[in-house]
Amino acid sequence: MNTLGSCIFCSAAGPFDRDEHPIPESLGNDDQVLPRGLVCDGCNQYFGVKIENPVLSSPPFSIERTAAAVRTKKGRLSSHVDKRVRFFSSRYWDKVIFAADDASQLPIIERPDGSGLLIVAPPPKYDELVGRFLLKMGIELLATSTTDVRSSSFDSARQYARFGRCNQKWEVAYGLYPDRKDLLVEKREDEIGPLETRQIYRYEMGGMADGRIIFCFMFINHVFATCLSDDRLGSYTEEFNRINGFSLVSNLKK
Ligand SMILES: [Zn+2]
Hints:
Blueprint: H1 41-56, H2 61-67, E1 79-81, E2 86-92, E3 95-99, E4 108-110, E5 116-118, H3 126-143, H4 155-163, E6 172-176, E7 184-189, E8 194-198, E9 201-207, E10 213-219, E11 222-227, H5 236-243, E12 249-250
The protein binds zinc ion.
Zinc ion (ZN) binds near residues 12, 40 and 43.
């Protein structure tokens, strides 16, 4: 277990008065909190305002949170609101209420069968923010393990997560797990009616043969992977794509 008393991101000796959720409450984590003495209040606040807020209020998180009826920290149902289009939760899985002032102005790609595909793009610099968001979660989750999270092997990841400092673009691979039906964990019936339990998020820490640690995070069916030990995924993505029935694509290949 990691020792308490200095911040794992900025080395400050405190204060440590705020609850630090490694996975944000707004993604459905209502029980996992880090022990006090690992993340200082300054870093807690910085991540909340500068990283989590913009990432979670942008697609895909904003739309998926709405579609999965995940509540915000304050207990409200999520929504996705931008200048042209708004999605609200219907309280039912995968059914959203959609509103637009002028549907003819929406960025829709017409498909050969006559149907349309609405493109809701993430904001500028999203790549960088999502990378820092993943590293913040990864480092904090690592702090709950037996790995020494203050080891210099994670210095670049902590610097990039907290200060955005990096010599080059940090690699993040992203893909869509193809079948949302597989997210159904349990189905049962009680006196009120049928009840379904679905997976909202999960994560995995993978150790590569060369000792590097890969953090893989899945929210609904969106899969993200990044390396906590350096800014490159190396052979991980290739290996992942070989084993799985769907592909991750690196942000360096865009
Ligand atoms: Zn700190």
